[in-house]
Write a structure and sequence with these properties.
The protein has 475 residues and is an alpha+beta fold. The chain has 6 helices and 29 strands. The chain has 3 domains: 2-78 and 96-111 and 437-474; 121-193 and 358-433, no CATH class; 201-350, no CATH class. The strands form 9 sheets. Strands 7, 8, 11, 12, 21, 22, 23, 24, 25, 26 and 27 form an 11-stranded antiparallel β-sheet that branches. Helix 1 packs antiparallel against helix 2 and helix 2 runs antiparallel to helix 6 (439-471).
Length: 475
């Protein structure tokens, strides 16, 4: 429309050589410049309003990092060039007219926020630098500060969207030393080792105490092994520990443990079947470390390669018990169980019971990201480690939604590190990092941005009013 008006004014004034044309044309041009400045200001402030709105909307989003908008001025028209000073005349500054503002940058504020305590030990926050690594089903990797995790039906450690949490897998959960000391980025599976139990004929204990407790049995088993059957015999009275093992063919055999009178006296004096179990396993471990048993030809038959039994376990099964089991009743049951176990042979057959995450009595994540579980049979288990990724320029990461970030050319490649090392933060179990949005700052920016938007809109309306006056000069 403005171009049409200029052309309409051009013809009659040029026909008569009226200089008023140049005044109007110049005025229209100047008004166009102010209009462009107003539009540019509106656009910039609209972008800032969008960013502020997104920040406020995510004030309660775990792991969210707020953004800020910065403006810069744009192209300038030089109406008078600058001149340098001479002996005859002083220098003159240039005269320039700008064309408004534009968005200079939208920066991510990567500052750490406060932690919210939760009752879930699988929730983690990072106290310091670093990001949790996750991977979707197609292999795309993301990085996040939102540590809401769980274990799926297959034992995989996943986040709230089902993405795999990456780190270091420990392939021997019973040994912390088996875990790699180098940070990794592989999937982590919470695989609880199977339990090998040998149980054919549980020993029924006599009723004890004034409450006539019944339905209590003592069970024996192997914590590891693949034998088909074995007979365990515990004898007492000797000073030498004797172990008779069976060979690698898993033929029926007898395992005999001889416990000294001194050890048995300690066990019987207020001890439990757990104390008896410890003493039996000490004897087994001693022979594993230094085989002394010889066959008829003088060759060792009890070695780590040939013995398949592993450790022996004893337990009192009170799941079917009736009556009230008092402390005195429990002491009597323990004494009765020890007498039964040391008074005869136990024929046991090994069966494998698969275990899962649900079979752990407790679970937590240590400060260095190690996944630790407590099992009633295996004791402490170490499944792996949540390793972190750090970046030279974390502000250069691309946001991918759902509190995820992705690597970019500006961020640089991720450096994988064990939590708490190489500049990375420690893992805090049972907590989540809250959004770092500061509502006081956002509302203050909201006010100033609103006023800026209003002022720029006033530039447009005022310029339009003056343009109307210039157009009316032709009448």
């Amino acid at each position: 429309m403005l171009t049409v008006k200029v052309e309409y004014l051009y013809r009659p004034y040029m026909a008569v050589g009226n200089p008023k044309y140049f005044i109007i044309l110049k005025g229209v041009h100047n008004m166009l410049r102010s209009l462009f400045s107003g539009v540019a200001g509106l656009t910039s402030h609209q972008t800032k309003l969008d960013v502020i709105g997104n920040n406020i909307a995510n004030v309660n989003t775990y792991g969210f990092k707020s953004s800020r908008v910065t403006f810069s001025d744009v192209y300038y028209q030089t109406t008078k060039a600058a001149t340098g000073a001479t002996l005859e005349q002083g220098g003159i500054n240039s005269s320039q007219i700008g064309y408004g503002s534009t968005v200079s940058s939208i920066d991510k504020m990567m500052s750490q926020s406060a932690f919210a305590s939760t009752s879930n030990t699988l929730d983690v926050a990072i106290s310091g630098e670093g990001f949790i690594q996750v991977q979707d089903k197609t292999g795309n990797k993301f990085f996040t500060r939102a540590g809401m995790m769980n274990v799926d039906s297959e034992g995989n450690l996943v986040d709230s969207k089902g993405y795999f949490v990456l780190g270091t897998q420990n392939y021997d959960a019973t040994s912390l030393a088996a875990m790699s000391p180098t940070a990794g980025n592989s999937k982590i599976n919470i695989k609880v080792p199977d339990v090998h139990v040998a149980q054919t004929d549980p020993i029924a204990l006599d009723a004890v105490g004034p409450n006539n407790v019944t339905g209590v049995t003592v069970k024996a088993g192997f914590l590891a092994g693949d034998q088909t059957d074995i007979t365990l015999t515990i004898t007492t009275g000797g000073n030498k520990t004797a172990v008779t093992a069976y060979d690698a063919t898993a033929n029926p055999a007898t395992l005999t443990i001889n416990i000294s009178d001194n050890d048995m006296a300690k066990i019987n004096n207020g001890g439990t079947i757990g104390d008896l179990q410890d003493r039996v396993n000490q004897a087994i471990e001693a022979e594993l470390g230094s085989p002394k048993l010889l066959d008829a030809n003088g060759a060792p038959v009890f070695t780590e390669d040939t013995f398949k039994g592993g450790k022996v376990s004893f337990m009192l099964d009170t799941s079917e018990a009736s009556g009230t089991l008092s402390a005195e009743d429990n002491k009597a049951l323990q004494k009765d169980a020890i007498a039964k176990l040391t008074g005869g042979a136990l024929a046991m057959e090994s069966e494998i019971e698969e275990q899962s995450f649900a079979d752990l009595s407790s679970f937590y994540i240590s400060g260095d990201g190690t996944l630790v579980g407590v099992h009633s049979v295996h004791g402490m288990l170490y499944f792996g480690r949540i390793d972190l990724a750090t970046f030279d320029n974390p502000q250069g990461l691309n946001e991918a939604g759902s509190s995820y970030f992705q690597e970019s050319a500006a961020s640089g490649s991720p450096q994988y590190c064990i939590p708490g090392y190489e500049g990375s933060g420690a893992v805090v179990s049972g907590s989540l990092e809250m959004s770092n949005v500061n509502l006081a700052t956002e509302f203050s920016d909201l006010i100033t941005t609103q006023r800026g938007f209003q002022a720029n809109s006033r530039i447009i309306t005022t310029s339009d009013s003056i343009l109307e006056e210039l157009v009316n000069l032709k009448r």
